[in-house]
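S1.2 Input.
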Amino acid sequence: MQKPSRYTGGELNAVLKKPGPDDLRIALFFPDVYEIGMSHLGLKILYRVLNSIDGVFAERVYSPWSDMEAFHRSSGEGLYSLETQTPLGAFDIIGITLQYEVSYTNVLNALQLSGIPMRASDREKGSWPLIMGGGPVVFNAEPVAPFFDLLFVGDAEEEISHFARALLAHKRSGKSLKWQEIFSDFMGRKGYYFPAQFVPSYRDERFSGVTPLISGYEQVTKALVTDLEEAPYDTRPVVPYMETVHNRAVVEISRGCTRGCRFCQAGMIYRPVRDRSPQAIAELARCTLDASGFDELSLLSLSATDYQHISPLLRDLMLEYGRSGVSVSLPSLRAGTLSDALLDELRKVRKSSFTIAPEAGTQRMRDVINKGIDEEDILATARIIFQAGWKRVKLYFMIGLPLETTEDVAGIAHLAVKIQQIAREAAGRSAQVIVSVSQFIPKAHTPFQWWTMDDRETLKAKQRVIEDILRPYSTVQYKFHDARTGLLEAALARGDRRLADVLERAVELGCRLDSWSEHFRFDLWQQAFADCGTSLDRWAYRQYDLNDPLPWDHIDSMISKTWMQEEWQRACQEQVTPDCRFDRCSQCGVCGGEVRLRLNRRQGLDISERETTAEENLAQMAMVPVTTLRIRYKKEGMVRFLSHLETVKSVTSAILRADLPVAYTQGFNQHVKLSFSDALGLGIQSYAEYMDIALVEQIDPTEAMARLNRELPPALAVLDARTGTFAKLSAAHHSTTYQVNLDVENGQHLHAAQWLVRRENKKGVREIDIKPHCAIMGTRPLQFAIHSNPDGVTPKPVEVLEYVSALPREQLSGFVITKMQVVGEGAF
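S1.3 Output.
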């Protein structure tokens, strides 16, 4: 198994409760692997909100990688939750987040693996969980609508409490939780979409409309959090053992965007803009960092530099946390918004790469898509970035946009060359420009929802135009997204319920994890469409007329369809619509009553009381160590499947939460100064792991151990601690004793002159003699010692077990090797 820590559970801040038979149990399923799902803020918030309600128990489930799926299928065990290993089918509700159309097969695969009928109509009889979904894809989830009992449209973090309490009351009163029984309770509330209450119709193989079955329930309007200040949040995020895609503390500073890019679905469905105040942001940051020990804080927004007074906010947060080893980052910056004050703050953060998204190569094309920036903005931003010390800039573009010409495509390459010339002048020959080009994919609820997408041959021709221009420039790298994946996404993004048959067939053929290139099978997708009497091209390349009924017309994003039609006409005329935050209202239709722009007008934090703390942090970061805290800790149970790096990360974050007077390494990227003993083999249990922590002041070892154990999971608890001056752990000669839950016979092979085992590495396979460096101490159960061999090869515990037991290695996985003690120089 490649990454066992995906499935161990037991992370810091995970919620463990014991549900009773009358309590409501909800599985929150993210249809992708753990490291992707654990990076999603929305699911973290729902997890925390649901578990704050008495009688409601929410647990997490993620898609298995192919190796774990093979285990599930061979063992007959379905998917289960991380918290209590409860089978997916045993929950009352399965809540599924739908972030990306290409993850649909992961949803169906999870149901199939768990023995749950995929179609909602097949779950009407019997006791099955209520299957509900939410997320941005729900604004057109028609291709998967037949598989769901309920879909939730819009912001869920406030409404989810009402929903959970209502269903808890249903269950405790003995009522069924099937959608037919709960429909009347929710049809009048915003956000609740029961697909079975809408029947689509078709004429001449084209979608012709949707008929609602219930009077008064003709359209589903999105739910909306009107004020982020009052919205619930997760201030105790689960801290993963493994490295995830976004392994950091996250504070959403703003939601929504009114820039009005005509291709951007997020910019439309998340309207209006709602800002958090700097004071609320600071409090969320403090709570999240204190509870997690993360060393990075990310300020989340669709366009962070559009947050008013972002510069003083960033300054104050960096003053508060930057000198204690916590960096502050912005995931998105918009060309033309980089002020001198903001640049002064950005100079202090880690300079890996900087991202600019011009989207199009010519001003004509940027006006068509309503990007709202000109070439002067882009070039000026690039010049500022390189002059400030960055050595690498990433540029994001799209090809295949509506009304695009060959000159527009060539403009992408020409703009990249201009930026490369600026990079060379400002930052030297080592500066890099990376051009990333994806294809335009039309999405529902945008002004470009009626347009088609380019076919693969046209896209390839446009890619060649860019390649031919950029080929002579070695410091400009360029890469193109896989057009085949985009083709599938386009088909599903504007599809209707007839695609449910295709999805079902694709899963039967083996499609899953389609967003991962190593798993994407374009040939199987083409076969799935063909087996259902249609083609992928037909669905991906279709174009709608402005007055055509659309499969998602009954989902109300609160953006006027008339306004989107007018925006399409303005695009055809190359006219720009101003941002209503800074100009007049464009009458998109979203604002009214409590729903309105909520912009931050306050410039920054009151940090006068915290300046002393920042100065103290600065002084501590520069202090030299006066002592070393050496700890011995255990690694047992499921935690033994953490890799060495995952263990280091988990312990390091606990040290930060414990607020020990640690010393830091010097340099730009400072971190806690510590060292570990030799890496423990994956799957080995241990009661003798060692770590040295450099401290800038003396501390009682007992107090330090107590602080650490308050922050560590029990399976990683500190067993002993002392302070002083010690030899380096890596340099100490030692003997390590192990025990295995296996009785062995004192066979003839143990008396051989050599104990030869085969060891394989990149150079090939060789035999080594492990006998001089190990000793058998007992056979019932097996106990042995391994002596470190600084001048040669030290045996691995599994090699000793394999030789002594005389069993093939594939049969050893059922036995647990436990590291019991380390004896020698520098050990306890």
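S1.4 Remarks. The radius of gyration is 29 Å.
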